[in-house]
Write a structure and sequence with these properties.
two-stranded antiparallel ribbon, globular, 10 helices
Length: 244
């Protein structure tokens, strides 16, 4: 069980996309090393998935390049190991969700001038873990389906999930409560969430221009945008303190 305790800290960002991104930048600078650790852990786990599944990413990339002019004729699912690789990757994403939520917790600790510990990254594996994983599964299905529909629906749908993880962590909510509350707040403030979400996503993906290696440094930024959005619209979170 966990208890919560209020504490006074610096002011929250204004309810604008620019203010949220600016606040997220300040937070990200303070937890950058831990963001790298999250990506290294996740990347290492991802590397184990490929040999287990028998999927060959190099052959996959070569097939995409060779069939660039006629991708619609390429049957990706016919490649050996593709189905198992996709399934294992999805499972890894769900199991890693608490780790990503742990980085949100680190952002809150930095924002409230508390000492940071590496083990804090794993707090969500003992705090509302099941609901976090279920939420991850549901949101992945919805966003994945939106992506399949010619990508455009994804652009309009993903802002509704901006607050889900922070709500699950700081309010110990169920996955359904997190979905409902996140959707409700985003619906009432859609343009701000869209601007913050798009800017956060663009910054997170900017590492792709550094031969993909830069993604390790930039991809976790979107998680901190979630935290800053939570602060802007729901105030400073209450501190999680493990009960004795």
């Amino acid at each position: 069980m966990d208890a919560f305790q209020e504490f006074d800290q610096p002011p929250v960002p204004e309810k604008t996309g620019g203010a949220i991104i600016s606040h997220a930048f300040e937070m990200y600078k303070g937890i950058f090393i831990y963001a790298l650790a999250v990506m290294i852990i996740y990347g290492f786990a991802s590397m184990l998935v490929q040999p287990i599944s028998g999927f060959d990413s190099q052959i996959f990339a070569e097939d995409i390049i060779s069939g660039a002019d006629n991708l619609s004729m390429m049957n990706m699912w016919a490649m050996p190991g593709t189905g198992l690789f996709t399934g294992l990757s999805g499972l890894l994403g769900i199991l890693s969700a608490p780790l990503f939520v742990g980085l949100i917790y680190m952002a809150n600790k930095y924002n409230t001038a508390q000492p940071l510990k590496f083990t804090d990254l794993f707090i969500a594996y003992g705090q509302n873990t099941l609901n976090i994983m279920i939420y991850s599964l549901i949101s992945s299905i919805i966003l994945g389906f939106s992506f399949v529909l010619c990508f455009l629906p994804l652009f309009f749908v993903f802002p509704f999930f901006l607050l889900g993880y922070p709500i699950l962590l700081f309010e110990n909510a169920s996955f359904s409560e997190a979905l409902s509350k996140s959707f409700s707040i985003a619906k009432e403030n859609y343009m701000t969430f869209l601007v913050a979400g798009v800017l956060g996503a663009l910054i997170s993906m900017s590492g792709i221009f550094l031969c993909f290696i830069g993604l390790i440094a930039t991809l976790p930024f979107y998680l901190v945008v979630m935290y800053s959005s939570y602060c802007a619209y729901l105030g400073r979170p209450r501190e999680l303190i493990a009960a004795e």
